């Protein structure tokens, strides 16, 4: 039996792997009458993934809080009758990330297809450097700032928690393949360097309300988060068109030709620049640089990605004399998804929504192009992504619904049962997504492009009986 390397065998069955870390932690807390609160934390960590010169990082953090509603002037002024409690808090911290390819300070070598033969007729294989080492690679850093409020009103029935956050990530390891020309012979062996910078900022909130009216109890809770990131620095080639640069745009935002309509008639072909193979029923691309030609220079980077800028939820629950109901909605906004339909190639077919509205000679003025075979047409090809196939994934979904009834205890005690509850429920019952009607807005892309492959979220209906003895 082979149990592997004897130096990596442990009685608990674990394997330490190839990486090692050493950490030192510390924390200091201060609180005065639970009104003034302060905390200082720090971490000094070493990672074997970096060279001995750069493997240690110091990551401190500080947080302050002031419960102003406990001040005497607050209570004497009557403000506590309006705002029952108010706490102001803020924090700043620096964290480090080493979730990277380890040991980048070493150069990598590989067998080359070339070889040479020495005078003694011996064949020698040649090795070449496949990736240069970077002995100065170090921790990626995140500087995180947060300020927030905790408040309660109406005798603590209504509570509000809100935060503003501003996170700056620096020293992100990226490869300088864009700014270093291929002619140097180094473009394909360059190591990652700590140059990238991204800022992510936004706010989140949660509002809850609990109340009781006689025998009717109800609870409402709403939460949301708005966050938007922007690339502050990314390695890009000199002379890159400003409408194509990654810098200043969200992470993972794509380059697309801007679709501005459909060639309805032959006259439209004379009005707009187009590819040589363009015909009526095709998609019109915008001539961004104004050179009366459609080329790769006309592709534009958008200000959206597949990551939503807003996510939120709403939950409502109530009960009255044995009846209870709980509802939860969820939603998102601000994201887009590229849908590359398969068309009619092979055994594929078109979506009914497309087929019913497609361009034809008898229906030229429509917002849909003609029928197509995927990748056979320039405006559907993976080579020429365009905004026509970008769709907003904004949605509101009825995520959970449950209705129940608990039998009166006077009934159940007669048969020695403590509690009986009947309930009906469902998951993913309704989804409203005006620009994403043919697919599930949360379905992840699979394969080359996205055409609805993958199993969508299931709509589940349940019924049950709970008996407690």
Which helices and strands appear, and what pairs or packs with what?
Blueprint: E1 21-32, E2 36-47, E3 56-67, H1 72-76, E4 83-97, E5 108-117, E6 123-131, E7 140-153, E8 158-175, E9 192-213, E10 216-233, E11 255-256, E12 259-262, H2 266-271, E13 283-285, E14 300-301, E15 310-320, E16 323-333, E17 336-338, H3 352-357, E18 390-392, E19 395-406, H4 409-412, E20 419-432, E21 460-468
Antiparallel strand pairs: 1-2, 2-3, 3-4, 4-7, 5-6, 7-8, 8-9, 9-10, 10-15, 11-14, 12-13, 15-16, 16-19, 17-18, 19-20, 20-21
**Helix segment count?**
4
**Largest sheet, if any?**
13 strands, antiparallel
The gyration radius over C-alpha positions equals: 31 Å
Beta-strand fraction estimate: over 45%
* Portion of residues within helices: under 10%
- N→C terminal distance: 53 Å
Spatial sequence of strands, sheet with the most strands: 1-2-3-4-7-8-9-10-15-16-19-20-21
Gross geometry: extended
> What is the mean predicted local confidence, pLDDT?
90
Spans where pLDDT lies below 50 across 5 or more residues: none
């Amino acid at each position: 039996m082979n149990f592997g390397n004897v130096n990596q065998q442990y009685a608990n069955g674990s394997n330490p792997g190839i990486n090692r870390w050493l950490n030192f932690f510390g924390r200091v807390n201060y609180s005065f009458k639970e009104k003034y609160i302060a905390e200082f934390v720090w971490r000094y960590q070493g990672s074997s993934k970096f060279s001995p010169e750069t493997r240690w990082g110091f990551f401190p953090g500080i947080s302050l809080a002031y419960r102003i509603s406990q001040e005497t002037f607050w209570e004497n002024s009557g403000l506590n009758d309006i705002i029952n409690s108010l706490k102001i808090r803020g924090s700043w911290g620096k964290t480090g990330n080493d979730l990277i390819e380890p040991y980048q300070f070493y150069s990598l070598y590989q067998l080359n297809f070339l070889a040479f033969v020495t005078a003694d007729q011996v064949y020698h294989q040649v090795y070449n450097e496949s990736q240069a080492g970077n002995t100065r690679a170090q921790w990626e850093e995140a500087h995180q700032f947060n300020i927030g409020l905790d408040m309660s009103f109406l005798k603590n029935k209504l509570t509000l928690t809100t935060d503003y956050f501003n996170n700056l990530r620096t020293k992100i390891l990226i490869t300088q393949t864009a700014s270093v020309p291929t002619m140097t012979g180094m473009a394909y062996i360059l190591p990652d360097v700590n140059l990238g910078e991204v800022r992510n900022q936004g706010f989140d909130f949660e509002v809850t309300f609990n109340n009781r009216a006689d025998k009717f109890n109800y609870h409402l809770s709403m939460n949301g988060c708005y966050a938007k990131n922007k690339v502050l620095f990314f390695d890009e080639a000199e002379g890159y068109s400003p409408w194509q640069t990654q810098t200043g745009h969200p992470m993972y935002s794509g380059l697309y030709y801007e679709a501005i309509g459909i060639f309805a008639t032959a006259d439209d072909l004379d009005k707009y620049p187009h590819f040589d193979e363009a015909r009526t029923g095709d998609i019109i691309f915008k001539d961004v640089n104004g050179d009366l030609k459609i080329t790769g220079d006309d592709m534009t980077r958008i200000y959206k990605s597949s990551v939503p800028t807003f996510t939120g939820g709403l939950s409502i629950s109530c009960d009255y004399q044995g009846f209870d109901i709980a509802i939860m909605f969820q939603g998102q906004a601000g994201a887009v998804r590229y849908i590359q339909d398969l068309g009619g190639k092979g055994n594929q077919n078109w979506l009914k929504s497309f087929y019913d509205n497609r361009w034809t000679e008898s229906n030229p003025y429509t917002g849909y192009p003609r029928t197509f075979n995927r990748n056979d047409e320039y405006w559907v090809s993976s080579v020429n992504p365009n905004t026509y196939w970008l769709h907003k994934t904004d949605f509101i979904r009825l995520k959970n619904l449950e209705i129940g009834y608990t039998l009166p205890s006077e009934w159940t005690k007669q048969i020695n049962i403590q509690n009986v509850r009947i309930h009906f429920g469902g998951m993913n019952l309704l989804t409203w997504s005006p620009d994403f009607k043919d697919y599930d807005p949360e379905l992840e892309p699979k394969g080359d492009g996205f055409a609805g492959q993958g199993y969508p979220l299931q709509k589940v209906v349940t019924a049950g009986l709970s008996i407690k003895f």
